Amino acid sequence: KKEIEGLRKTHDAYEEGRILNAQPLLKMYKEVQEGISNVNTSATSFPASITEQSEDQDDHRLISSVLEGNFADCKYQELGKKEIVGKGADPMAPEKLCLNNKRLNIWANQGKAVILDGPFELDPSQRYLVESLSLKMDERIHKISVGLFADFGPYIDQVSAFFLGMVHKEEISLVKPGVNFLTMESISMLPPQCNGVMLVAWGEPTYSDRTNNGGMDITWAELKTYYRGMKLVLNKYEELAK
Question: What is the pTM of this model?
């Protein structure tokens, strides 16, 4: 029995190490939580400068807010609504690392992801809740996903998304009051210190009509001509002093 228990402990440690090696952000977060100051295993033994340590602390705080959720034991005062109407942007690949959509990071490097609209600036001192988000895309466009991403610090965070299949309406809702169609949650809070939002599209854009049953691949620049715009409504909040 003791031998089996000993093997189980060794196996658990092996599995934990394997998982953490595959999830570097989670590994970094776990090390910080355990009080390990040097989270970069590839770094040299020389002590980091005060500026570098400060930047690391900011990064850990931002990552923690995503991994732990965006809610805290505090009170907020509502400041009204902010409405954003987008009409499209010149297609360009998102440059920042996405914390919760690894596929987007890979596809962006392969030229298969672009910023479809935005970015739209927000006040990082305030908190934002997505009340609703809808976009319009020609019904003949499919095989792409479109999502709302929050911009904060050196990262972006996916808030909601929708896959455009062979059959979809021109107007598509990603978030309605009381439901996020990606997470199926009633609250869609943007992460703390969020300084902007953007609409990102990724996949293999395809155009189909009655003359080409299988569809025809198109470029992101061509896709822009089929995009009809978006409307985003945010609720603004200010944290009250404790």
Answer: 0.70
